[in-house]
Specification:
Strand order of the largest sheet: 4-10-9-8-7-5-6
Radius of gyration: 22 Å
Shape: globular
Mean pLDDT: 97
CATH superfamily of the largest domain: Type I PLP-dependent aspartate aminotransferase-like (Major domain)
InterPro entries: Aminotrans_3, Aminotrans_3_PPA_site, PyrdxlP-dep_Trfase, PyrdxlP-dep_Trfase_major, PyrdxlP-dep_Trfase_small
Cofactor: pyridoxal 5'-phosphate
Number of helices: 16
Keywords: Aminotransferase, Pyridoxal phosphate, Transferase
GO molecular function: adenosylmethionine-8-amino-7-oxononanoate transaminase activity; pyridoxal phosphate binding
Bound molecules: 3-[O-phosphonopyridoxyl]--amino-benzoic acid, pyridoxal-5'-phosphate
Distance between the termini: 49 Å
Family: Belongs to the class-III pyridoxal-phosphate-dependent aminotransferase family.
Number of domains: 2
Helix content: 25-40%
Low-confidence stretches: none
Length: 440
């Protein structure tokens, strides 16, 4: 059994959401990160155009976060979260609810976006049940939605490729249509003019199932993972109205949009629409320690706080909920956001960012450009018969050119750390333009 360690053997690690065989033939390795840049194993600097995976909103190697983690690891490494507490969990909950939109006074901690989504769905079902509306068991998602990869999130999710391998999923789930409409909205800056009526699909679904059987509707206020679909003007307001009319909870999945990505702390601040529950992850700890959260109003939370006091009110939680090191990282992250004004910095940079993005109009294969906050998307005409290949080849060329971009299907998504400087925006789009010009 004396198998020697194999540090350079790439076989054992089955990589997530990766073309494993392609990667292992030509690995792309990051060995360090600082500020806006990664360093590769061959010593090149790569400009981070994606904040890791939409999560390092304050950039990399931020001293307050690093120090908080170091200290916490030496002081209290782990504490049980079930029937026990530790001070940083409460401190972090207080601090993070203080920056949440008004009324979101309670937070439940998880370890990822996927866990946050499943937690929010379970909370919605249980909320109706504790109030005596146990018949509300249906969950409504949206085509092209991404709500992580656990069974609940996958079931309400609407990205066909993420669903097709995995059987029948949760029963009682239906979907409204997505909002993508290139024919009317291509090359829009900010929120598209057309498509508020797509929200009326929810009325159709309500009529089909009887709205009194529907527990919740979950949407990303801005769909990220599917390739950046920005909600049409008035769309989210209308979803809110329909949910209110039928007593249905509205869940916003803010895993990407939370913590400043859209130029406001949360998407609901930007759009002026409040859900009943919302999820977060990624930027919660700047991506440094895995952590997620579900924020709720007192109306939801207090509905559970009945019955004998020795009984557990919500039979749900994770071994690592409110992990001390994650809470410490979260506190360091909030300090960093506050010091650098990052939760609103996107708003200051938005028009410069949008100008740079829209300067790509007219380059080969570009069929749409869209932006909101510090997010941009470039939709490409697919190569006939080879969907995703064009964008993937561009991703590889961009990496060689010193910029990290993200592709999904034939869409390039950009979401840099919120500390990005104007000169770095120029560099990102300048290099990307060169890559696009030589793309097949
Ligand atoms: N909800 C939303 C809206 C997300 O964007 C999740 C849930 C799941 O979070 P976890 O932490 O379980 O991965 C996400 C995650 C991409 C990309 O490039 C997007 C995500 C994750 C990885 C890559 O589009 N979104
Ligand atoms: N599986 C087994 C056998 C377990 O004992 C536990 C937790 O105790 C889990 C899964 C869930 O793990 P987690 O709480 O980290 O989600």
């Amino acid at each position: 059994m004396n198998v020697p360690p194999r540090p350079n053997d790439l076989a054992s690690f089955w990589m997530p959401f990766t073309a494993n065989r392609q990667f292992k033939k030509a690995p792309r390795m990051f060995v360090a990160a600082d500020g806006m840049h990664y360093t590769t194993d061959d010593g090149r600097k790569v400009l981070d155009g994606t904040a890791g995976l939409w999560c390092c909103n304050a950039g990399h190697n931020r001293p307050k976060i690093v120090e908080a983690i170091r200290q916490q690891a030496g002081e209290l490494d782990y504490a049980p979260a079930f029937q026990m507490g530790h001070p940083k969990a409460f401190e972090f909950a207080n601090r993070v609810t203080a920056i949440a939109p008004e009324g979101f006074d309670h937070v439940f901690f998880t370890n990822s976006g996927s866990e946050s989504v499943d937690t929010a769905l379970k909370m919605a079902l249980a909320y109706h049940r504790v109030r005596g509306e146990a018949q509300r068991v249906r969950l409504i998602g949206r085509e092209r939605g991404y709500h992580g990869i656990n069974f609940g999130g996958m079931s309400v999710g609407g990205i066909a490729g993420n669903r097709k391998m995995f059987g029948v999923m949760l029963p009682g789930v239906d979907h409204i249509r997505h909002t993508h409409d290139l024919a009317r909205n291509a090359f829009t800056r900010g929120e598209p003019e057309f498509g508020v009526e797509f929200a009326d699909e929810l009325e159709r679904v309500c009529a089909l199932h009887d709205p009194s059987t529907i527990a919740a509707v979950i949407v990303e206020p801005m769909a990220g993972s599917t390739g950046v679909l920005i909600p049409p003007k008035g769309y989210l307001q209308r979803l809110r109205e329909i949910c209110d009319k039928h007593g249905i909870l509205l869940i916003f999945d803010e895993v990407i949009t939370g913590f400043g990505r859209l130029g406001t702390p949360f998407a609901s601040d930007r759009f002026g629409v409040k859900p009943d529950l919302f999820t977060a992850a990624k930027g919660l700890t700047n991506g440094v320690v895995p952590m997620g959260a579900v924020f709720t109003t007192s109306k939801i939370h207090d509905a559970f706080m009945t019955g004998p006091e020795h009984l557990i009110e919500f039979a749900h939680g994770y071994t690592y909920s409110a992990n001390p090191i994650a809470c410490a990282a979260g506190l360091g992250t909030l300090d960093t956001y506050a010091e650098d004004g990052l939760l609103t910095r996107g708003a200051e940079l938005e028009s410069y960012w949008a100008d740079a993005l829209h300067s790509l109009k007219g380059l080969p294969h570009v069929i749409d450009l869209r932006n909101l906050g510090l997010i941009g998307a470039i939709e490409l005409e697919p190569i006939a018969g080879q969907p995703t290949k064009r964008a993937f080849d561009i991703f590889l060329d961009a990496y060689q050119s010193g910029i990290l971009i993200r592709t999904t299907g034939d869409i390039i998504a950009l979401s840099p750390p919120l500390i990005i400087e104007k000169a770095q925006i120029d560099e990102l789009f300048g290099k990307l333009a060169e890559v696009l010009k030589r793309a097949a």
